[in-house]
Amino acid sequence: MKYLEAIGKYFIMVWEVFKKPTKWRIMKTLILKEVDELVFGAMGIIIFISFFIGGVVTIQTALNLTNPLLPKSLIGFAARQSVILEFAPTFTSIIMAGKVGSYITSSIGTMRVTEQIDALEVMGINSLNYLVFPKIVAIMLYPFAVAISMFVGILGGWVAAVFGGFAPSGDFIQGLQMDFNSYHVTYALIKSVVFAFVIATVPSFHGYYMRGGALEVGKASTTSFVWTSVVIIIVNYILTQLLLG
Amino acid sequence: MIEVDNIHKSFGDNHVLKGISTTFEKGKTNLVIGQSGSGKTVFLKCLLGLFEPDEGNICYNGQVYSELSIKEKRNLRQEMGMVFQGSALFDSMTVEGNVMFPLDMFTKQSQSEKQDRVDFVLKRVNLVDAHKRFPAEISGGMQKRVAIARAIVMNPKYLFCDEPNSGLDPKTAILIDNLIHEITQEYDITTIINTHDMNSVMEIGEKIIFLKNGLKEWEGTNKEIFKTDNQAVTDFVYSSELFKKVRQMYIEERN
Question: Where would you find the membrane-spanning parts of this chain (chain A) (predicted)?
Answer without folding.
Answer: 38-63, 136-164, 185-205, 225-244
